[in-house]
Amino acid sequence: MTQHTDSAAPGTAREVFGAFLKLGLTSFGGPIAHLGYFRDELVTRRKWLNDSAYADLVALCQFLPGPASSQVGFALGMMRAGWAGALAAFIAFTLPSALILLGFAMAAASIAGPVGSGALNGLKIVAVAIIAQAVWGMARNLCPDKERAAIAVVAVAMLAFLPGAFGMVGAILLGAALGLALGRGTGAPVGGHITMPVTRSIAVTALLVFAALLVLLPLLAGIGQSFALFDSFYRAGALVFGGGHVVLPLLQAEVVQPGWVTPDDFLAGYGAAQVVPGPLFTFAAYLGAVLGPEPNGVAGAALALLAIFLPGFLLLIGVLPFWDRFRAMPMAQSLMQGANAAVVGILGAALYSPVFTSAVDDMPDFTLALACFVLLMAWKMPPWGVVIIAALGGVALRLLG
């Protein structure tokens, strides 16, 4: 599974860990914003792959259940440094927020007052700038003509009337069909991917393990609480499409309705999860720690984290060999050109709702968002620096009333 590449030479797991640890410490704003951070750091700055290959991964992970941004990060780590790189990317991107939420659960502390709420508001506002930067950059590369620009607009229109995960999948399918009708695929070698050590046998094994766990875990849940815990979080990770906030109702049904976690504790953890960087799926670490029945604490957090991320990664591994071979065909390239244009539209729709509508309430908020965008685009300031400025700006706005 070797692809031609126009990106940098293969790296090391240590390099991948460093890059994703930086992202894990600074990627605020939810899964859509994470994709913007990934693109800025790994496509624009480090040049590990190009925009086309990156958009292919985003489109693939939008089709699969699980945490889309973590799946994209897992695949990027694998492209860069093989299986060790994939594991390094997952650990580095997930660990910071997981540890913060575990600490929050153990200390039962909460963020309050104008400083805490102002910083949180600033972190929501900076996501507007990050996503706007991603939409602008990807649109220039993936919508270079009027036809593909129109596909992006059609995707936005579709999400306006059919929001949510079904709308996203439908927009990508429609974009792919329109791309096929345009017939712009050439069959030329696809750049951007480096060697990925996923054979057909590994892929089929991963799919079989995914299905076996989905069927067998409910049968094992009666043996003990550890199996019941793993079953609940595995099912939530396996059945949610769209990632991020979509998993919350499933988790609530799995842990609140049985009485494992109180409604107040659940909502407190949800509020804390909005403050931390990294994937929202690390909310599972908090829930695993505050469970009433054992295992809880550190053991419960580790078990919940493993269970909720595992199904998405098994599915990703299961489809990668077939996806890579498929995308090198002329017809597949036409499909992907349309799907990539639709991804730009999906990001554009997310920029408005829920990101802009939930973050910008008035003209001072809009001013801070615009300042962050200018710092990213014109001043070329690194995202982590803009995040700090946005948090401080949010505190200042709150203190000024």
Helix content: over 70%
Given as residue ranges, the uncertain stretches (5+ residues, pLDDT < 50) are 1-8
Count the strands?
A: 0
Mean pLDDT: 84
Distance between the termini: 57 Å
Shape: globular
Contiguous helical run count = 16
Largest sheet: none
From the alpha carbons, calculate the radius of gyration and give it in angstroms. Answer: 21 Å
What percentage of the residues does DSSP assign to strands (E)? under 5%
Structural class: mainly alpha
What would you say about this model in short?
By secondary structure, this protein is mostly helical. It has helices spanning 13-26, 31-45, 51-63, 68-107, 113-142, 146-161, 165-182, 200-220, 225-239, 247-255, 263-273, 283-290, 297-326, 330-359, 363-377, 383-399.
